Amino acid sequence: IGTFSLILLVGFAALQVLLPKLVADTWHRGVGSYGLLFTLQGAGMVVGSVVLAQTAPQRRRGILIYSLFTVSSSLGVLLGLSPWYWGGAALQVGRGFCIGFGITLWDTMLMQRVPQHMLSRVISMDWFGSLGLLPAGLGLWAVLSGFAPPGTLIAASMAFCTFLYLLGLADPRIRNVD
Q: Residues 6-33: pLDDT tens digits?
C-alpha cells in the first residue's frame, strides 16, 4: 500500500496535472485529443482485463503484477518523451492493457486470499491507503509544472515509478506471491 501510495503521488498525479499541458504545448492539440488519450487507455484496460479473464494466471502473480506495472511506467516514460501525439496514443493503449490486467489480477487475488469476513476492510484499506497521498501529489505537480517542460516532468515521474516497481520485483515477499 505504501509503494502504491507513492506511485499515485508521483506518477498518477503527474499525468493528471501535466498531460493536458503536454497535449497543448508539445502536440498542439486540444481537449478532444486529451480525452482520446484516456479513452484509448480505457480501451487498453478493458482488453487487459479480458485477457486476464481468459488466461487466469495462478502462479507467480506478484511478479506478474509488478512486471506489468513496470512496463506501464516504462511506457509512461516514452509517453512523456514522445514528440508525436499518435505515438503517445499508442503508448496509452499499452499502458491501459498493463494497468487493466494488473489491477484486475490484484483485485482477483485479494478476493481469493482474504477471508470473506475481512474482505471489505482489506479492500477499503487498500484503496484508502493507496489514494491517501494523491491530493498532495496533485498540488505538488501543480507547483512543479512551471520548472520544466511537461514531457520531461512526466518522463521523470514515470522513471521514478519504474524504479519503485523494480525495487518491488527485487523483494522476495513479492516474488513469492502466487
A: 999 999 999 999 999 999 999 999 999 9
The grid coordinates listed for 140 are 505538488
CA-CA distance, 95 to 69, in Å (whole number)? Answer: 8
Query: CA 174 to CA 135: how far, in whole Å?
Result: 27
Alpha carbon distance 12, 152 (integer Å): 15
The answer to whether the predicted template modeling score (pTM) of the entire model surpasses 0.90 is yes
The residues near 108 (Cβ < 8 Å, ≥ 6 apart) are 52
> What is the spatial distance between Cα 174 and Cα 27, in angstroms, rounded to a whole number?
38
Cα(165)–Cα(85) distance, integer angstroms: 27
Helices (H), the chain: 2-7, 13-21, 31-55, 61-81, 85-113, 116-131, 134-144, 150-170, 172-175
Place of cell 516474488: 175
Give the other-Cβ count within 10 Å of 149's Cβ.
15
